[in-house]
Every structure is written in structure tokens, then in C-alpha cells.
Input
Amino acid sequence: MIFSRVGWKYRVLIISSMSLASVGLAVTFASWTPSAQTRPQEFTSITSSDSVFRVRYPKSLLVCSHRDGENPDEWSPQDCAADIPVCDNSGHAGNVILCLASPTAEFQRSELQAAAFSVSRIDNLTGAKECLQKWPRTDTSDIHSEAIGGLQFQAAKARETGNSHVAEQHIYRIFHKGACYELDVNLTLALDTAFAPEDVPRKLTTAEREKIKDLLMRALRGFRFLK
Output
């Protein structure tokens, strides 16, 4: 049993499994004093194996793990997989430390392929200037500063199209203690061209998009460095 302190009063239980061990993570279920808008049973938290960061996130999100140790683009369960990866942001060569996916079951027969929140360490960007200014693609837009957990991140948006799919990506960068970290909120949708005319999926409603985004943004807002 391992105890961590994050400024809340809680009891913790560490649960490990082969799937979580494959991504070097430990899951902590915590009871804490709830705010007016949240209940403790709705959230859990996950800590990186080196204890550098923790993410508090809605329990409905799924922890993704590598399906094939030799292929970093293969993730399981299926909710974590997409033609344009939602865990591995193909715009960088970073080490994906954590990936949390939104369940897709209730959106079957829609354009949604997968959506996820991920945390990467980009080891080839060794300086603060590179980390905060060298973006994945030339069409990166809406670059601005944004506060998460009391720290300032450089945020941006990007869009990637390929294989009859499109990915909408929200990118958050920070240079922390000599390392470049990137937090991504990624959504991959199937285009009509991926299907025969009679099989074209329905479009997500605005409410469905907001529901998916809200889950992933809660994980983003729950990110904290521990050291």
C-alpha cells in the first residue's frame, strides 16, 4: 500500500494490474471533501510511475495501455484506438506516459471513432524555447497562454486529416524541471468518404460533443505536478 498527499483528506488504495503496469501507472481511489458541484465517487486519480505528476479524472474515462509492446501506435481497449491516433499524437515523437479515453459505446453508429486525453514527455525538445514554440504542424493555430493547476501552459489547436478521418487536437505545453511535457485532448472523427453512401454514420450532436469534451477537459484540469 502506497500513500500520497495531494492536499486533500483521504484514504487511498493502490490497485495494480498487468495492463496498468504496462504503462507504468498506479491508480488511486480517494475520498475527499467534495465541492458543491462534484462528488468524490465520480473521480479517481492516477500517478505516473516516477511520481512526477498525478491526474484526477472522471471514473468513466478508460485507462489505455499498449496492445503491442513493439508497436507504440497500438492501444487497448478499442475505445483508445483510431485511424488517426488519439493517444499518440502523430505530430511529435514524444513518450506517451498516460492516455485516458472517453467511452464510445453510447455513440455507436456516429462519426466518433475515439477521443482521449494524453500526457507525453517530448525528449527531443530539450529547451524551454523549443518546447513552447516548436509546434507539431505548420497549421497550428490559436496559440495562447493558459493556466492549469496554477501553472502557465502554452496552448494551441491543430487539425489533422488522413485516411478518410479528421482529428481535432488541443495541445498544452510546459517546460518543467528540464523536460518538455505535452498534454493533448484529441478527437478523431470518420468522414463520410470512409463509408458507402448507405452506411454513412450520423453526426454527433452539439450536446454529445460537449459531453465528450467536458470529460476530457476535467482530466486536463486535474493534472498536477508532484515534484
Summary: Residues 62-222 form a domain with the Protein Transport Mog1p; Chain A fold (CATH 3.40.1000).
